[in-house]
Design a protein that fits this description.
With 401 residues, the protein is of the alpha+beta class. The protein is built from 13 helices and five strands.
């Protein structure tokens, strides 16, 4: 990096604000470079004026390429009419390059044809006897080089612009994906934990007179569930709010929940009043961490919906995994015996709401489909024969997207 006081840094900053200063320096450099070899210094003052007319317009070459080329071409026509040869004619090549680099194709073609006509006129007037073809070819080659360089710069600039646009698009997509991930995680965390806390609070209120010890245990579980929710939220958002730095980093670096945490999840659901049975088959160690989190969230969302919308049901969780495939099935089945289990309210006090989260008009099914789609899998959610509801997700772990 250049220091802030470096002249080149000031020039670059000035060039970003206006292209005229940098182009004016180019014009001055070309003026001085072509001043000595010619006959300007030894000739009349009007030659100096002609030299200036050929070079000075380059200061505005990037602001008005076609106008600058026209002005320089007019000065060159006066020079041709007077029969004076000046090295400053190189300004025509710079002007043609600028038109090719910055103007549309039709302007570039027009500029190239006009300059080629000037090349032929110059060769016809100043070429040595018998050397017209060679002189015209040499001047045409220089004009073609300026033209092709300008076209190449235009293509390169368009390519760089497309890369920057693609990078910005990727950045926007990354932000959108991160927001979608956070939305899914927050939905799962908040919905699950609040559902468990509400169920525990209802149970505590129901048994507070008949079984005070069970009510106290439910309240303790509510507090533990709330703390777990806060911890999951901090981890999901990637920024702990603990007072000590050690606790903060401990929360952030704590592993995300996976297949091993499905058992404790089922235990919390049983404490909330949902009889839950879990069966895990396969080598969970072979499943990537991200896929394990997906499996955990699928089970969590399905159990939460069962707790909210199917009171008195029993939930069966089946997880079968391998290094290439994972299958998650959560089924809730009506079981009258479960209605009398500890922790449940009377059937008349529980209201079974519509299972909108699993029928596609809520965030539940949308989040589940997004998680499964990330692994090229399939999700099937719907009623089963004989009553109940089933969620079946199949993940392709071999080629995550």
């Amino acid at each position: 990096m250049k220091p802030a006081g470096h002249p080149a840094a000031h020039l670059a900053a000035l060039s970003r604000w206006s292209t005229v200063p940098a182009d004016a320096l180019l014009a001055v450099a070309l003026f001085l470079a072509t001043l000595g070899p010619g006959q300007v210094l030894a000739g009349s003052p009007w030659l100096l004026a002609l030299q200036t007319a050929l070079v000075a317009p380059l200061a505005w070459r990037r602001r008005a390429p076609m106008t600058v080329l026209g002005v320089i071409g007019l000065a060159a026509a006066v020079q041709w009419a007077l029969g004076v040869q000046l090295p400053a004619d190189a300004a025509l090549l710079v002007a043609l390059y600028t038109v090719a680099a910055r103007r549309p194709w039709r302007h570039t073609l027009l500029a190239a044809l006009v300059l080629q006509a000037g090349v032929l006129l110059a060769a016809a007037r100043w070429a040595p006897p018998g050397r017209f073809p060679f002189t015209a070819a040499a001047l045409s080659a220089m004009a073609a080089a300026a033209l092709m360089t300008g076209l190449w710069m235009r293509v390169r600039r368009a390519y760089v612009t497309s890369l920057e646009s693609d990078r910005e698009q990727r950045a926007r997509l990354a932000v959108a994906e991160e927001r979608a991930r956070m939305t899914r995680d927050m939905h799962d965390i908040v919905t699950h934990n609040l559902s468990v806390m509400v169920a525990l609070a209802d149970s505590a209120a129901y048994v507070r007179h008949s079984a005070p010890d069970r009510a106290a245990a439910a309240m303790e579980q509510i507090a533990a569930t709330g703390r777990q929710a806060l911890q999951d939220m901090r981890r999901s958002l990637g920024a702990g709010r603990a007072t000590s730095g050690e606790d903060r980093f401990g929360e952030i670096l704590q592993p995300a929940p996976g297949i091993a945490e499905i058992g404790p999840l089922a235990e919390r659901m049983r404490e909330a009043g949902l009889a839950t049975c879990v069966r895990v088959a396969g080598d969970s160690e072979a499943v990537p961490v991200a896929a394990q989190l997906t499996i955990y969230r699928l089970v969590q969302e399905a159990l939460t919906n069962t707790l909210r919308h199917a009171p008195g049901a029993r939930a069966d969780v089946r997880v079968e995994v391998s290094s290439r495939r994972a299958e998650v099935e959560v089924t809730d089945v009506r079981d009258p015996v479960v209605l009398g289990a500890p922790g449940f309210l009377d059937a008349e006090t529980r209201v079974s709401g519509p299972r909108s989260g699993l029928r596609g008009d809520g965030r539940g099914i949308a989040g589940m489909r997004e998680r499964v789609a990330a692994y090229g899998g399939t999700l099937d959610a719907g009623p089963v024969t004989g009553g109940g509801w089933r969620v079946l997700a199949v993940l392709d772990l071999g080629a995550p997207r």
